């Protein structure tokens, strides 16, 4: 028997990480405040179906309704074996038609034969068809007194509002990492398996908050490591990057050393997993202060920008190399920014006796002084060099957008024409059609504006003018056959219908 089935909870106090749900259901059973329909929603493997079975067994227990069923009466014994006559479980994915729901409605008319209630547990209820939901509405709202419904789903947003309003809803949260690790320790000790705690943390992270998924991986790790679950064996089995390699990689980046060999080592793993492990390492480094706080934000930003590129189908090695270059560039920027003020010498103030005023010629302003005066008068333009050519900046803007979104960059390159840049306004001529305009509007705030401010200045904005075809030209383009017929009937030889 698998670990997930062997250690499936049989009472509310055995639920892992769902204390609030267990407490609420237990108090409802003890006080007798029972609803006619319940909805359990949450992540897969979080305990929804197990809680539904415990709740149903507590309702059917021959010794009375309580939060702790006796597990010894005939009703509890059959419930534990999954063969109780009055507790009907069905899968909404395979019984999703209106005919299946009509069968439930027909069964609900008959009183229970062994237990206290007729209980229907419908798993993955969001898979039911619209017609099936409509057929279930009336019975779900006003069922017979001996009928209880327990619905379970991983996607409650797919359920109609009419169903949600007829049920008591319980959300099963993602199980915390510490709770899963503690549960794994308990199971491994009962199974007599040797383990290292970092290995259990790897299994818990890979399970993604699902206890069932974690136990499946744990069982695989026990077989892979021959009853001795070590951190090295677990990382090899899961394909995870060794934390020591990541620590060496980021330490070399901060120290300005070469990371070529380390980058080649990371390229052997799945790029998405490498980025995920990098993000986790930086999060732990932030809490433990392993790395300087000033590098954490640009490093995390580079990783966040790299993950969408994989969704667009970019090569994994290229994405990893690009992220490394961005991290290296972020380390050089503060040094450049700090070096600029040191070029300007500030004269020391000394107290001297007043001297007779003499006419002195005004010194000619140096390029540095002119740049400082310009930046002081117009802070919006101080983020870029005063001598920068707006056309070259527009090319930089296109390249920056294209590196993040290839399709959007192609629209900028092919359909938008630079006209001028004046007073923080970038004037463009647009030849974009309806689909291109929709793409521009969709990414304007999230991508275009940040890139625009980075290249042209903090207060820069875009204005466009879109040429519209003349009515006759548009008519010609949309009705070529009709135009040809008109030319034939009018007998024109030069093709100029407008002259006729």
Automatic annotation (TrEMBL):
Top-level EC class as recorded in UniProt: transferase
Gene3D superfamilies: 1.10.8.60, P-loop containing nucleotide triphosphate hydrolases
Domain called AAA+ ATPase: residue spans: 34-176
InterPro entries: AAA+_ATPase, DNA_pol_III_sug/sutau_N, DNA_Rep/Repair_Clamp_Loader, HLD_clamp_pol_III_gamma_tau, P-loop_NTPase
Assembly behavior: DNA polymerase III contains a core (composed of alpha, epsilon and theta chains) that associates with a tau subunit. This core dimerizes to form the POLIII' complex. PolIII' associates with the gamma complex (composed of gamma, delta, delta', psi and chi chains) and with the beta chain to form the complete DNA polymerase III complex.
Family from the record: Belongs to the DnaX/STICHEL family.
Protein name: DNA polymerase III subunit gamma/tau
Underlying gene: dnaX
């Amino acid at each position: 028997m698998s670990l997930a089935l062997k250690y499936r909870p049989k009472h509310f106090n055995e639920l892992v990480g769902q204390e609030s749900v267990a407490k609420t259901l237990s108090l409802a059973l003890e006080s007798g405040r029972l609803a006619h329909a319940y909805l359990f929603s949450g992540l897969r493997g979080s305990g929804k179906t197990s809680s539904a079975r415990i709740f149903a067994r507590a309702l059917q227990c021959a010794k009375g309704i309580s939060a702790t069923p006796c597990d010894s009466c005939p009703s509890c014994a059959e419930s534990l074996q999954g063969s109780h006559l009055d507790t009907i479980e069905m899968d909404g994915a395979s019984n999703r038609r209106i005919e299946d729901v009509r069968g439930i409605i027909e069964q609900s008319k008959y009183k229970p034969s062994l237990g206290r209630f007729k209980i229907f547990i419908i798993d993955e209820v969001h898979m039911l068809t619209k017609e099936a939901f409509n057929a279930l509405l009336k019975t779900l709202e006003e069922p017979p007194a001996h009928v209880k419904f327990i619905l379970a789903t991983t996607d409650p947003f797919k359920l109609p509002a009419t169903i949600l309003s007829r049920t008591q809803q319980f959300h099963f949260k993602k199980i915390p990492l510490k709770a899963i690790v503690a549960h794994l320790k308990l199971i491994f000790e009962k199974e007599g398996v040797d383990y290292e705690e970092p290995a259990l943390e790897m299994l818990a992270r890979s399970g993604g908050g699902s206890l069932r998924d974690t136990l499946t991986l744990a069982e695989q790790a026990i077989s892979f490591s021959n009853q001795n679950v070590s951190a090295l064996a677990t990382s090899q089995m899961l394909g995870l990057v060794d934390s020591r390699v990541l620590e060496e990689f980021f330490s070399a980046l901060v120290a300005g050393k070469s990371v070529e060999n380390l980058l080649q080592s990371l390229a052997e793993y799945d790029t998405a997993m490498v980025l995920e492990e990098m993000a986790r390492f930086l999060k732990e480094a932030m809490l433990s202060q392993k790395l300087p706080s000033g590098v954490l934000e640009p490093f995390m930003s580079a990783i966040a920008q790299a993950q969408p590129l994989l969704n667009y189908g970019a090569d994994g090695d290229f994405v990893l190399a690009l992220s490394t270059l961005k991290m290296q560039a972020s380390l050089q920027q503060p040094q450049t920014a700090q070096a600029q003020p040191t070029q300007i010498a500030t004269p020391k103030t000394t107290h001297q006796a007043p001297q007779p005023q003499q006419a002195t010629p005004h010194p000619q302003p140096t390029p540095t002084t002119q740049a400082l005066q310009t930046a002081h008068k117009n802070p919006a333009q101080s983020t870029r060099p005063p001598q920068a050519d707006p056309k070259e900046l527009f090319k930089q803007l296109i390249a920056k957008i294209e590196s993040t979104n290839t399709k959007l960059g192609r629209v900028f390159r092919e359909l938008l024409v630079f006209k001028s840049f004046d007073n923080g306004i970038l004037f463009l001529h647009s030849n974009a059609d309806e689909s291109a305009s929709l793409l521009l509007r969709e990414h304007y705030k999230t991508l275009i504006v940040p890139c625009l401010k980075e290249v042209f200045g903090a207060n820069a904005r875009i204005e466009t003018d879109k040429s519209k075809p003349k009515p006759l030209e548009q008519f010609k383009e949309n009705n070529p056959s009709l135009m040809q017929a008109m030319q034939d009937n009018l007998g024109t030889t030069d093709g100029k219908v407008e002259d006729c």
